[in-house]
């Protein structure tokens, strides 16, 4: 059963995402019919899952279909993060590292949800980058289903580089990171609105600025490099930041515990993962039909894009 949005988020969803409450169920039915008609596609069809993708695509049915197809295609294309997605003790240990933090309801001024990535907490002798992003793909899917601020207003991400040494950068798998970045850009049900990079050590500035310049050309949201956490106050505000970053929005350990509770509550959900993916041998190769261009039953809509 769908959760009703708060009045503030409902207005934001209507203005920015073209969400019309009276039309949501119709769109869900259209997507379910389309999924059943695809011989190669084994996709989830729960209401909240489809709504998350509709919001990510601003209720463009055709873009939603493409993103869903890509998402489940990546079960084959990127098995390092999209296969064997089960709640294990090792996964809970990765969460307890506190490398990726997903606070519960961080109400920034623009209503975006706050994500914090602390790469300095990764010990490559204990955990691989594959394990980290395997966890992150699962956490982001849960957040897309549970956090309306994230699914409606998008994500404000803080990348904290404190503790990242030149040795860690040399061992950083840049090719794997590029694949992850493609998944995030092309498949994820969450929309990043802005990124802030803080606490960059001088000895890794060259490597980080190379990645910064490369990624900035590929995205349509700002990536800002700040000197320290204090500069975040000018962009996010103390009321939205956790106390470890000088704010008043709870403690990071509370967010870690919150995510562990969510992971445990989603054990049954992820135990169904074996059902999903694509069978590429069955993918149809044909000219685009009327439905492919305009949606089932002519459901094409004129959308208000930014």
UniProtKB/TrEMBL annotation:
Which Pfam families does the protein's record reference? CRAL_TRIO
Query: Which InterPro entries does this one have?
Result: CRAL-TRIO_dom, CRAL-TRIO_dom_sf, CRAL/TRIO_N_dom_sf
Please name the GO terms that the record assigns under molecular function. Answer: phosphatidylinositol bisphosphate binding
Determine the domain of life of the protein's source: Eukaryota
- SUPFAM superfamilies, A to Z: CRAL/TRIO domain, CRAL/TRIO N-terminal domain
- Domain annotation CRAL-TRIO: ranges: 114-253
Q: Name one GO cellular component term.
A: membrane
Q: Which Gene3D superfamilies match?
A: Alpha-tocopherol transfer (1.20.5.1200), CRAL-TRIO lipid binding domain (3.40.525.10), N-terminal domain of phosphatidylinositol transfer protein sec14p (1.10.8.20)
Q: Which PANTHER family match?
A: ALPHA-TOCOPHEROL TRANSFER PROTEIN-RELATED (PTHR10174), CRAL-TRIO DOMAIN-CONTAINING PROTEIN-RELATED (PTHR10174:SF216)
Q: In its UniProt entry, what is this protein called?
A: CRAL-TRIO domain-containing protein
Species: Drosophila navojoa
